[in-house]
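Morning!

This is the sequence you dropped in the shared folder:
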Amino acid sequence: MKRASLAAAIVAWLAGGLAFAGQADEEARPAEARAAEEFMLGSADEAQRLADYQIFTREIAVDSLVLDTFDAAVAEAGVPAATMLEARRAFASALDLERDIRTGDRLHVRYEQAFTAEGVAIDVGRVLWAELRTRSKGTIAIHRFRTRDQGDGFWLANAQAAVAPSMRMPLDVISISSGFGLRPDPFEQPRPLAATGKPAPMGGPKQRNGSSLPPGLPTGAVGYGKPAAPIGAVPIYMNPDGTWKMSLTKGAAPKRSSGALFMHDGVDLVAPTGTPVHAAAEGVVVGVGPNGRYGNWIQIDHAGKLFTVYGHLSSFAPGLTAGTPVSRGDVIGFVGSTGRSTGAHLHFEVQSEGKAVNPTTHPEFKAVSLRGADLERFKKQMARSLEERAREAKVAASLRR
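The structure's back. Tokens below.
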């Protein structure tokens, strides 16, 4: 005889067919006991229970005009907040939903919702695709798509995953004056002309002895074993889709006096003095202060996997010390020209297993993009979605006449 559970004892008592539930055999239970147990514990045939409710799924398309905030527009459209949560995160990978949304922008959402025969919604719903037409960033659309190997998720119209890369570049506007790798020493190049037509000063604030380094510090980079190289002269720019483009315009290559090349362990990001510098990812500050050729310098440990370095800063964020935890995007300092520097810029460096790597090509800074057969299927799905929307809009316009 099987040992009865408490639930079995209760249902046996309800059925009134047994004197002691612990002696009841599974096959000997009355039908009434089985029914009572299923009522309390759930039916083994869930498919049948769903069929009894006559559940059906319907697609719903809504449009809304932004009068205040993104969330207010979602509520005005009648889309439940829980339904929109995943899509909201996807939109946030492409634009700032607080800063980039303005009055007059438009929102379109198509989602699917399950209902009972009585019209009662029984789950949170699922957004299929959505579009924001903004004045600040243009049209941003996200489409739910299932890849062959990465599963279901949202993708932007340019076929990039609508998920922010785990690491970000430290400035909001990216203009690279010197890339990663070997380069000549710009201190041997002709000095840039200032507004007066005279050679402009090079390096950070001059000390009393005429040096541009912090007093009493060595000229090499502390803790890295390599001298920190100054900025070069080959401009590189980030395209809107996140790819990189190098400008090879005539005259871009600098003239050299000695011909010597130095390894540049990072990239130099040009920006005015005082521009906020953001943490590339969540981590803990392990170094902050003057550091030789880096000038004012910060180092962040990202879970022991990667380290990021920020050099030539004019100043640090208030309260920033070694041991301070930071989140992705936190302001940690401000662009400057301290240390061995030819002008205001940020030296940004990424270390992986103690070795410098190129941040512009490192996977942690890149969004995943669709390729091959997945890309072709995605394009066809987007085309069908847009055609369906246009057809529904045409029908709605005819009904209003």
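Headline: The chain has six helices and 20 strands.

More detail when I'm at my desk.
O.
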